[in-house]
Amino acid sequence: MSKRELIEPHEGDKRYVRRDAQGHFKEEVDVGRSLAADRRQHAKHEKPRGEGDKGD
Questions:
Q1: What is the pTM for the complete model shown?
Q2: Rounded to an integer, what distance in angstroms lies between the CA atom of residue 34 and that of residue 15?
Q3: Cα 15 to chain center, whole Å?
């Protein structure tokens, strides 16, 4: 699984994206929704940097 990277397609629209082997977007999520989801969930295990959405 590739790491998430932060992109800003236009000002004020930040997103985390994950790319496939060809470099196309495989998965994308808005930053605000991602951070809100991280706050709601308390992980039991730590994940490597850049893969925070793949925790338990």
A1: 0.54
A2: 9
A3: 8
